Automatic annotation (TrEMBL):
Family: Belongs to the LDH/MDH superfamily. MDH type 2 family.
Residue positions binding substrate: 92, 98, 131, 162
Natural source organism: Luteibacter yeojuensis
NCBIfam families associated with the record: MalateDH-SF1, PRK05442.1
Name used for this protein in its record: Malate dehydrogenase
Length: 327
């Protein structure tokens, strides 16, 4: 067994938290030989519920769970952490204006960014799940000036996995036989699920489905899948979101498969004409714990228009939160 690493999870008593913590503790994220110490952050009123979750974690007697810290203090939650999954956020409520949503999340992600800056390991890997995920990640990043900006990422992996599942269903293949799907841009309905480089059983995906299905069914289905789950379940995606968060962190820690890539929202470095300054969904590969944006892909006019639309939305979100950035 290796030495334990510290993994922070915020919103730990929420529904994604409940689907996530047990899998991290069981070794699904970092492997069966990597013990973890969980650092769980909640708001004060949720601490009793969180205590119940801690009791259940202990009752699982996981060989890979080396300890649990449960707190309502971000400075304690992020102390020396190697990984941070920021799940707790303020989703849009009825009648809530966009400005109110961004303000409410600023009040969460600015102090959490500062606490990470002050207390986390210098190579901490941060994944923001709480919506609006890309812009919440940007707020946290901009309040952590002493950390490498590349420490901050947001989750588009659920969208990526949803794209795999839709394409598998359509072609009769297994998701494991599909490679090189990309989610560009924002984790919102402007995201662009791109199949131009994708293959199914080694052959180009777009030669196996017709363009009308791709444009008029596949893209909107992936974009609207979150809403469809809410309609069916009466609650937002939780187990699939937790599973995607584990996939994102596992690939970041242990690497992507040879001959494939994944989708992660990472700080733009100017690739594909996206100006630096937003957290943008890109095709990425990971090697030796470092991610790299896949370069040199041909982008046709169909794709470019959709990449531009999601870029525009992220820039507008950024303009709405710039006052929350540390000076
Ligand atoms: P939930 O409401 O069940 O749980 C959220 C938890 O966060 C609550 O227990 C709440 O007390 C806690 N919380 C709120 N403010 C906090 C703070 N400042 N510090 C620590 N904890 C705090 O929500 P659920 O279903 O677990 O979803 C969490 C977030 O994930 C939502 O914003 C949701 O929209 C988002 N989400 C993102 C997805 C993605 O693909 N990026 C997919 C699905 C959900």
């Amino acid at each position: 067994m290796k030495a334990p690493v510290r993994v922070a999870v915020t919103g730990a008593a929420g529904q994604i938290g409940y689907a996530l913590l047990f899998r991290i503790a069981a070794g699904d994220m970092l492997g069966p030989d990597q013990p973890v110490i969980l650092h769980l952050l909640e708001i004060t009123p949720a601490l009793p519920a969180l205590q119940g979750v801690v009791m259940e974690l202990n009752d699982c007697a996981f060989p890979t769970l080396a300890g649990v810290v449960a707190t309502d203090d971000a400075n304690v939650a992020f102390k020396d952490v190697d990984y941070a999954l920021l799940v707790g956020s303020r989703p849009r409520g009825p009648g809530m204006e966009r400005k109110d949503l961004l303000e409410a999340n600023g009040a969460i992600f600015a102090p959490q960014g500062k606490a990470l800056n002050d207390h986390a390991k210098r190579d901490v890997r941060v994944l923001v799940v709480g919506n609006p995920a890309n812009t919440n990640a940007l707020i946290a990043q901009q309040n952590a000036p002493d950390l490498d900006p590349k420490c901050f990422t947001a989750m588009v992996r659920l969208d990526h996995n949803r794209a795999l599942s839709q394409l598998a269903e359509k072609t009769g293949a297994h998701t494991a036989e599909i490679k090189k799907v990309t989610i560009w841009g924002n984790h919102s309905s402007t995201q662009y699920p791109d199949l131009h480089q994708a293959s199914v059983k080694g052959k180009p995906a777009l030669e196996q489905v017709d363009q009308t299905w791709y444009a008029d069914t596949f893209i909107p289905t992936v974009q609207q899948r979150g809403a469809a789950i809410i309609k069916a379940r009466g609650a937002s995606s939780a187990a699939s979101a937790a599973s995607a968060a584990i996939d994102h962190m596992r690939d970041w820690a242990l690497g992507t498969a040879e001959g494939d890539w994944t989708s992660m929202a990472v700080p733009s470095d100017g690739s594909y004409g996206i100006e630096p300054g937003v957290i943008f969904g890109y095709p990425v590969t990971v090697k030796d714990g470092k991610y790299a944006i896949v370069q040199g892909l041909a982008i046709n006019a169909f794709s470019q228009a959709r990449i531009d639309a999601t870029d525009k939305e992220l820039r507008e979100e950024r303009a709405g939160v710039e006052h929350l950035f540390a000076k």
